[in-house]
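Task 17 of the worksheet. Students: predict the tertiary structure of the chain below and write it out as structure tokens. Keep your answer in the requested format; marks are given for formatting as well as content.
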Amino acid sequence: MKWQEARRLSPNQFLLDSILDYHEEGDKKIVDEVALKRTISEKDTNKEFLRAKEGTLVYHTSNEEFVIHIRRDPLLKV
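Model answer:
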């Protein structure tokens, strides 16, 4: 489903999502389609974030776009 649809179905909640489709704009990945796995309570957010497998993320539906910032050089400290 599109991110906008996930936001409409689960307003103001944390979601555990599988990323199905995205596009890159500079140093950002803009997620276009997700597979909603489940909602997450606010108290369990950190635990679920740390448990998330590759390709899944915890994200809040208050964000209009699902954006992942890419670090090109992980050894560089800013």
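Marker's comment: The longest strand covers residues 28-40. The chain has a mean pLDDT of 90.
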